[in-house]
Design a protein that fits this description.
This protein is an alpha/beta fold and 241 residues long. The chain has a single domain (33-239), classed as NagB/RpiA/CoA transferase-like (Rossmann fold), CATH 3.40.50.10420. 35% of the residues lie in helices and 21% in strands. The chain contains seven helices and twelve strands. It has helices at residues 4-16, 33-61, 72-85, 106-110, 128-136, 166-169, 187-197, and strands spanning 65-69, 90-94, 114-119, 140-143, 147-149, 154-158, 173-178, 183-184, 208-211, 216-217, 225-226, 233-239. The strands form three sheets. It has a six-stranded parallel sheet with strand order 1-12-7-4-2-3, with helices on both faces. Helix 2 (33-61) packs across helix 7 (187-197). It is globular, with a radius of gyration of 20 Å.
């Protein structure tokens, strides 16, 4: 078995055979990430409509759909309409407390859907295997997002209590909601945000998931197929209020 040093040496040797590569540099963490993040948010506030439009264009370029709602009421109407159009029966959600400023989750039940928190804040007394099976059998997953990246049309979700990964990855349809506070221009700003929010009282979780449109693969005969390794449709709702 090759050692780490041998593996990296082979990678460097192979990369040297390719012409025209740009020089790589080690990223330097910001000295004051909190202050830098505040500056980023001020710039976003001044240009959020242009950033949102860039996000929409990039997301739809890779097969996602982006909608705009004035308030949680309208956002809930949109989720219900999407679910009915796709003949959804079962909806898995993040913990409702994580969605309360974006969505009226109780209205999904009132609309006749089977709704369940696919990731409760506390799992005490919960049959985890049964819950995972329910989420895997759900037709639609509803989540929030930690960040929405304008330059790539990507959503970034961190896992944690009430925010399980399965809700965004297992159902065939995924709906994510976010507001202006989650909008960032690009990946450089995402790095600053994670530096600023890492640690006690900040973002928590075992994993970070980057979602750029529906699941796509071309493993078999180079034929592009959607929905093999994740949702076949991704719908994103920007909530203004």
């Amino acid at each position: 078995m090759a050692t780490r040093e041998e593996f990296l040496r082979r990678v460097r040797e192979e990369m040297q055979k390719t012409k025209g590569l740009f020089p790589a540099e080690v990223s330097v963490p910001p000295a004051a990430p909190g202050e830098e993040l505040r500056g980023i948010r001020q710039r976003v506030e001044a240009s959020w409509e242009a950033l949102l439009e860039r996000f929409r264009v990039e997301l739809e370029r890779v097969g996602g759909r982006c909608y705009r709602s004035r308030n949680p009421e309208e956002a809930t109407d949109r989720v219900i309409a999407l679910a009915r159009e796709r003949e959804v029966r079962r909806i898995a959600t993040w913990n409702w407390g994580a969605l309360d400023r974006l969505l009226h989750a109780e209205r999904l039940e009132a609309a006749g859907f089977q709704v369940r928190e696919g990731s409760p804040v506390s799992l005490e007394g919960t049959d985890r295997g049964e819950l995972q099976g329910w989420v895997a059998g759900a037709d639609l997953g509803v989540t929030g997002a930690d960040f929405a990246v304008a330059e790539t049309g990507s959503l970034i979700l961190t896992s944690g209590p009430g925010r399980g990964r399965g809700v965004s990855l297992l159902p065939p349809y995924h709906v994510a909601l976010f507001g202006r506070a989650q909008l960032l221009p690009g990946l450089d700003e995402v790095g600053v945000a994670f530096e600023a929010l890492h640690g006690p009282g900040g973002l928590e979780g075992a994993s970070i998931t980057f979602i750029t449109g529906p699941s796509r693969t071309a493993d078999i005969e180079l034929t592009l197929t959607r929905g093999v390794h994740g949702p076949k449709e991704v719908h994103v709702i920007f909530v203004e209020g």
